[in-house]
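[Meeting: bench + compute handoff]

Bench side (C.D.) handed over the final construct sequence. Compute side (W.E.) agreed to return the predicted structure before the next meeting so the bench team could plan truncations. Sequence as handed over:
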Amino acid sequence: MAYEVTVGIPVYNVEKYIRLTMDSALAQTFQSIEFLVLDDCGTDSSMDIVRGYQQTHPRGKDIRIVSQPQNGGLGRARNRIIEEAQGRYLYHLDADDVIAPNTIELLYENALRYDADMVYGSYERIEEFDNEVRKTQYCYPALVFLKEYEFANRVYSDYGFLQANTWNFLIKRDVYIKNNVRHKTVNFWEDFSTTIDLPTYVTRVVLLPDITYYYYCRYGSLSNFQSRNHIDKSEIQKTIDAMALVKKESERIKSEPYFHKRMYKVMMTHFYMACSILKQESIISPAFTKREIRNVMCSPLTFTETCSLKGWRCRNLALYFLGVLPASLSVGIIRLLGRHKGLL
């Protein structure tokens, strides 16, 4: 059966939440959807619950289960979804989140209206810590990008403009297939390491102010260090390793007119990570050395290459020097700048 949209749901040990996720997915007003559930070899009853939906729900025939040979993490799971999807468009949904009933219909209508490569919805972040629920909405302005470089230029000009998440956008599957774009096979920040470069592969993009996704952050989540009393150094190191993969993409797009802005955004992300390490240093063990923190700021460009950037030369040079100064001096400057920006 041919589908217009595949909703890809990677599942791993989410038995507490999978019913809410499946209910929201199967309640979509849009009909031509394949619900592709990726079994990532968990140890709880998550997949038994999904099979129950497959057997009893009115849309159960549209649920397709694909199993990994062994647990491989989110990056590999999403890559398998990309390869297996039958829909013309792809939408990623995490197995502990929820989408609005009209999410796919709204995004699809705009994709057709503008022949868009991607359509982003806005989202609500729901934090559940210590019996307290906090909700924050992240709403895009209504924007349409149709010209070459227009979207990438905007994304890289404004650090916080675009969500660094794989979920909550509808994308032509061919964007992944024709450009051989795949998610990094890491378990930390695999979203960021992919989505930061997606703007380099697309031209026609729509942003919508409508809340289409509800992102749940719960106690103990590895992505939410602020609620924890202890952080293992290895967790942060894996995030740094994932971010380093983004640096390696620099060679491919050095000649693009937005490269200097993309470079600055990448290195500012590393600066924020360095500040985060300093802010949480009392609960990270074993501790990061000053040299390790300084090395977070190492640029993929040489000094000459940084000086040759088409724009934002001073900004990029400032960040470059943070990666080459003596470690104690570099960390001292990072600490001062972090305090000035209210990060420490």
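W.E. noted at the follow-up: The chain is about 40% helix and 20% strand. C.D. will use this when planning the next construct.
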